[in-house]
Amino acid sequence: MKRKRRWIAFAPFAGAVALMLLSSARAAPALQTIITSDRVMNAVTVSDDGRIFISFPYWGGGKATGPSVTELDHRNRPHPYPDANWNAWPRTHDAAHSFVRVNAIRIGPDGKLWVVDSGEANVGGKENPPDGARPKLVAIDLSHNTVDHVIPLDRAVTPHSYIDDLRFAGPFLFLTDAGDPALVVIDTRDGSERRVLQHARSTTDERDMMAEGHVLTTGGKPARIQADQIETAPDGHTVYFQPSSGPLFAAPAAALEDPNLSEAQLEAQVRQVYDTPTTGGTAIDGNGNLYVSDVDHLKILKISPDGRASTLIADPRLVWADAMWIDSHGRLWIPAVQLDRTATFQPDGQSRVKLPVAIYRMDMHLKPAR
């Protein structure tokens, strides 16, 4: 007896991107294939009432084009989110009212969908274009499906910045700069933006990145992705972060938030948690356990708050597991984005991404961190 497949196409992008939802019966019990696409998906986030949002990076490769941020509707049909206009940058070049280069999405503790738009930035190498689109955060009200507010990040960046990811702790926002190593701390009460731990060991990629047994290179040189992964502990007291090549570090949130501390005083409070391998993405559960992808050995590590690590799952399908998400039902969502196979990281500049790419899920009954 043949099992049925359900195919879903973007409207009005039919033929450009197709998502395939597979029944869990077709997948391995531990790792279920939930969504596949002929475009590279780099992040997934799920609201507490079950709404699913997916983002597509500009570096994704594949022959299809389409929106940067999408939502799957109740019939599992994806649509540009919050609307087509916000996903029309290639046509309008209206940087103030459209997504330029989305690098991360996540539902915040306020229930809004937060989008990290890196603007026209480069990761390492040459300076960003001085007249290019600037980075910003976009907060979307899910109840009205409209943009609630935008936070420009002009004061938080340098000519080499690439704003990468975002986490929350009370009124503070913490961001990673993967281009010019640092963390960015935003106090939403007064709008202040500060760069901390600039070029510190904890934010700087100082060793070769390894993926699928090879050194990751770009432009003939070892690739460097600076401060990349970041998580906040469930109680909001600790911030975990690392360059993509590891190791994993932690600092008290209060120290990062304190503008009166000198860089030396702040660095004195940073500690190494675990010597992580090259990492694509992380997540944290409500008990403070970290889930860290090992893109060299295609597995997910579970690191306890006291720094003990074990292998959660190893699977050849987990090629560059990226921005993971734990939903309100305790399920771990894992996008496998194949970043190391994209043209940027190939010596001959030819993509070796094997389409379709997939988002997987593990039904683990974890305690959500929110």
UniProtKB/TrEMBL annotation:
Signal peptide (UniProt feature, chain positions): 1-27
One Pfam family of this chain: MRJP
Subcellular location: Secreted
Keyword set, alphabetical order: Secreted, Signal
GO cellular component terms listed in the entry, alphabetical order: extracellular region
Principal location: secreted
Name under which the protein is recorded: Major royal jelly protein
